[in-house]
Amino acid sequence: MVLSTGTNKIKTAVFISGTGSNLKSLIEFSKLKKSPISINLIISNNKLAKGLRYGTIFKIQKKIISFKNKDIAEKKILNELEKNKIELICLAGFMKILSKNFIKNFKGKILNIHPSLLPKYKGLNTHLRAIENKDKYSGCTVHFVNAKLDSGKIILQKRVSILKKDSPDSLAKKVLAQEHILYPKAILKIFSL
Ligand code: GRF
Known about the structure:
This protein is of the alpha/beta class and about 190 residues long. The protein is about 35% helix and about 25% strand. It starts with 9 loop residues before the first strand and ends with a helix.
């Protein structure tokens, strides 16, 4: 766990694979005075990830790392993290599962956002599963990352109502809007500011 914020902001890397709307919200948050973090590095396993454009727009260093060989990929990432003195990792729509060994290197310093009310619906297709089960609510969760998928300690959750007319797409939109608020809130919470 990162314990103190000191006077400088906590150097943070955001890992993405796709659209990067959570990345954008984290960047905007990081620019606020009250934010304990700065975003110094963007890592993507996907060279076509739309979110990479935020690296260009906000002048943040980005690295594309192929996961064809996970061992090599993780070594390269660890090297980048070290080079950039990264202290915190925020996974934001990152579609690769990090190895136990990688997580050990950053114990208590990796966060993830997941589009369900964990422990319900770990893994993929969360919105479809919630609708098929006729749940009244879904939502999103920010949690610490441990070696088990979507199972680390929960930091914050936000509930979203599922209406009869909701489709997986419409629910995903509503949940995503809440994710953009929840991730910064969870970061403020863990640094108790
Ligand atoms: C979000 O719903 C996030 O919870 C999930 O993947 C989606 C990523 O969206 N892990 P974006 O790339 O941040 O727009």
